[in-house]
């Protein structure tokens, strides 16, 4: 501790101003002898003995300056801050200029108790002395800014009404590090049990409604006799990345590691978790890796790295998944995020644009505050850290924040007095200016159109405007379930494929959606490859009354090319359709021309022309009502039909 270090240096150095002042101001040899004994007792950790001896020193010599300061240190380390303040003030009253750094340590206690005005005055007094060390001056100037920020933040508080998640989640044991699936249905968290080793285990609960959860149950497949903690669930809840620190092979959790703490990963099939494996190099090293946060698209992993647990500077790192499924070498985030102090408890929101974390290195209100940073599209990097404000942040330690997918609700762990005991999980409404970008999701089950059996199929979500793959995933092997995150303000193309089946395409036009929208819930039936089976190509686009393909159609057409190359014995007919608006003869000509445009594109991609035919049907084969725009849009379509296999 800083204070312990301060006094060990202070009292063992014959050159310190305090000792020199003591030699001049104190003549009582008896008091000096008792003080030496008290100092030795303190150094050995015998606080009660040191306190008794210091009381005798001060009884013998009421002006023994060093005794007041050592008593202040002892009281502070014994969690009696108000008494520590009193002793510092008594010592400084005797000789205000004897030890300028005493003002710094007095200010630290004021600051830790949220007494910002008093802390500001003490820090400023410390800085006023020209001969204080550069390190003390730099720290004092940093905390002057903190005090000024805190005093201003208190004048402009945010609405903050934390609600305990209830007895189904919280117990007399500590609960912390929550993580959620993107549909807000599954909550996973860490609970520290009161065993001889304070064992940490994972528990999970399902949401019943906005204010209640099912009883939390342990995750037996992941829990061991050792510690599991600081987890991150993927958007669909099928992947978990978590921290394990007892990596002693057969002598510990069985999870062999690289260093003091490593990150491990497991997959969920149906309701069963696989065996957790070390996520490996280059993410894990001989250092301390912990507190992971997996992005909703599964392509980026944020985590904390430090030399050792609780030792040395901790920073936020990021690693990205490449096309071969390998994690890149982690890089620390920029100086807007990481400081010379500690950053921890990182959380990347499912919008992939908003990062939340805790830090004691940015301007704030206490030991650690909560911050956010927003992704800068132009600079392709994270922006400046923004303090979440008061009273979300206080003079106490704030950490482990989780922001729900809807962006409005946040979760955190707190030892508030109204809790069930120790740390409990709470939720609160996040101020609007601190909320992430709006998202929604697409959720359902993939199954065989004929047998209705669930299927494991490949999902590819592509940004239509940038022609960039956003998500590549698979539906659950046993259940066929899937869940994809969709960011508002974007347009997406979806392709679902499985060997032996016709592919499925869909689209999500969310460019003009700025407010929260209901999720897309839809089950997908994949049709086995068979003669006369059809698929609608939903992402083939033409200008109104024209047959030239728009460039955005290439995403879908390339998927069709892949399908034909993977199934070389399949022959298809390309069929064009229109709505009933306008002249039927014109519609027939237009549909024929559009079908030929698709045919021509495919031929240019070196597909054998013998495998292709095309035909226009005009408005003769509607699949929906032509009386409204929704129906007409469905009727304007391009299909492929299997003609030979």
What can you see in these coordinates?
Strand 12 (288-294) and strand 13 form a beta hairpin. The strands form eight sheets. Strands 2, 3, 4, 5 and 6 form a five-stranded antiparallel beta sheet that branches. Strands 7, 8, 9, 10 and 11 form a five-stranded antiparallel beta sheet that branches. The model is unreliable at 1-5 and 7-27 (pLDDT under 50). The chain folds into three domains: 2-155, Tetratricopeptide repeat domain (Serine Threonine Protein Phosphatase 5, Tetratricopeptide repeat); 177-332, 6 Propeller (Neuraminidase); 439-644, 60s Ribosomal Protein L30, Chain: A (2-Layer Sandwich). Helix content is 25%, strand content 28%. Helix 5 packs antiparallel against helix 6 (81-94). It is built from twelve helices and 35 strands. It is an alpha+beta fold and 645 residues long.
Tally of individual helices: 12
Overall pLDDT score: 90
From the N-terminal CA to the C-terminal CA, the straight-line distance is: 76 Å
Oligomer: single chain
Q: CATH top level of the largest domain? A: Alpha Beta
> How many separate domains make up the residues?
3
Q: How many strand elements?
A: 35
* Shape category: elongated
- CATH architecture annotation of the largest domain: 2-Layer Sandwich
Strand-pairing-aware structural class: alpha+beta
> Mind telling me the CATH superfamily name of the largest domain?
OmpA-like domain
**Gyration radius, in Å:** 32 Å
- Give the helix level as a range of percent: 25-40%
CATH topology of the largest domain: 60s Ribosomal Protein L30, Chain: A
Low-pLDDT stretches are 1-5, 7-27
Tell me what portion of residues adopts beta-strand conformation: 25-35%
Largest β sheet strand count, sense and barrel closure = 5 strands, antiparallel
């Amino acid at each position: 501790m800083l204070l312990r270090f301060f006094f060990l240096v202070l009292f063992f150095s014959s050159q310190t101003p305090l000792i020199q002042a003591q030699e001049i101001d104190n003549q009582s040899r008896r008091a000096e002898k008792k003080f030496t004994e008290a100092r030795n007792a303190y150094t050995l950790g015998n606080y009660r003995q040191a306190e008794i001896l210091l009381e005798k020193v001060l009884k013998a010599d009421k002006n023994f300056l060093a005794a007041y300061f050592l008593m202040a240190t002892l009281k502070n380390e014994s969690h009696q801050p108000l008494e520590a303040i009193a002793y510092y003030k008594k010592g400084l009253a005797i000789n205000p200029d004897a030890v300028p750094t005493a003002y710094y340590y007095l200010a630290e206690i004021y600051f830790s108790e949220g007494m910002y005005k008093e802390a500001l005055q003490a820090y400023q007094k410390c800085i006023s002395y020209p001969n204080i060390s550069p390190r003390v001056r730099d720290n004092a100037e940093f905390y002057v800014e903190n005090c000024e920020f805190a005093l201003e933040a208190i004048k402009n508080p945010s609405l903050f009404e934390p609600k305990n998640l209830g007895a189904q989640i919280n117990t007399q044991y500590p609960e912390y590090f929550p993580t959620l699936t993107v549909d807000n249905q599954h909550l996973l968290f860490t609970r520290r049990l009161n065993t001889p080793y304070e064992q940490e285990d994972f528990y999970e609960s399902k949401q019943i409604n906005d204010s209640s959860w099912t009883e939390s149950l342990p995750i037996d497949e992941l829990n061991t006799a050792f510690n599991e903690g600081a987890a991150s669930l993927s958007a669909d809840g099928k992947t978990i990345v978590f921290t394990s620190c007892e990596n002693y092979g057969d002598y510990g959790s069985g999870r062999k590691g690289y260093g003091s703490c490593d990150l491990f990963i497991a997959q969920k099939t149906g309701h069963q978790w696989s065996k957790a494996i070390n996520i490996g190099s280059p993410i894990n090293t001989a250092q301390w890796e912990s507190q992971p946060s997996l992005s909703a698209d599964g392509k980026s992993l944020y985590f904390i790295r430090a030399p050792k647990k609780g030792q040395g500077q901790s920073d936020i790192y990021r690693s990205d998944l490449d096309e071969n499924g390998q994690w890149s070498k982690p890089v620390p985030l920029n100086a807007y995020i990481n400081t010379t102090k500690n950053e921890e408890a990182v959380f990347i929101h499912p919008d992939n644009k908003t990062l939340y974390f805790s830090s004691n290195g940015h301007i704030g209100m206490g030991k650690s505050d909560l911050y956010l940073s927003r992704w800068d599209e132009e600079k392709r990097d994270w922006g400046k850290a923004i303090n979440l404000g008061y009273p979300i942040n206080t003079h106490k330690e704030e950490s482990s924040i989780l922001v729900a997918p809807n962006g409005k609700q946040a979760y955190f762990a707190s030892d508030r007095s109204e809790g069930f005991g120790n740390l409990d999980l709470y939720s609160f409404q996040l101020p609007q200016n601190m909320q992430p970008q709006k998202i929604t999701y697409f959720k359902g089950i993939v199954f065989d159109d004929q047998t209705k059996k669930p299927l494991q199929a490949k999902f590819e979500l592509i940004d239509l405007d940038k022609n960039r793959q956003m998500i590549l995933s698979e539906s659950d092997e046993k259940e066929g379930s899937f869940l994809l995150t969709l960011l508002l303000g974007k347009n997406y193309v979806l392709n679902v494929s499985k060997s032996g089946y016709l592919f499925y395409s869909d689209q999500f036009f969310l460019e003009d959606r700025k407010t929260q929208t209901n999720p897309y819930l839809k089950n997908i039936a994949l049709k086995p490859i068979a003669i006369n089976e059809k698929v609608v190509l939903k992402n083939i686009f033409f200008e109104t009354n024209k047959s030239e393909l728009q460039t955005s159609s290439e995403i879908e057409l390339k998927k069709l090319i892949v399908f034909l190359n993977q199934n070389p014995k399949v022959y298809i007919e390309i069929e064009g359709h229109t709505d009933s608006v306008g002249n039927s003869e014109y519609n027939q000509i237009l549909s024929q021309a559009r079908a030929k445009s698709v045919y021509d594109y495919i031929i240019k991609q070196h597909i054998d022309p013998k495998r292709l035919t095309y035909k226009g049907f005009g408005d003769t084969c509607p699949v929906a009502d032509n009386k409204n725009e929704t129906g007409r849009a469905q009727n304007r379509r391009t299909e492929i039909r299997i003609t030979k296999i």
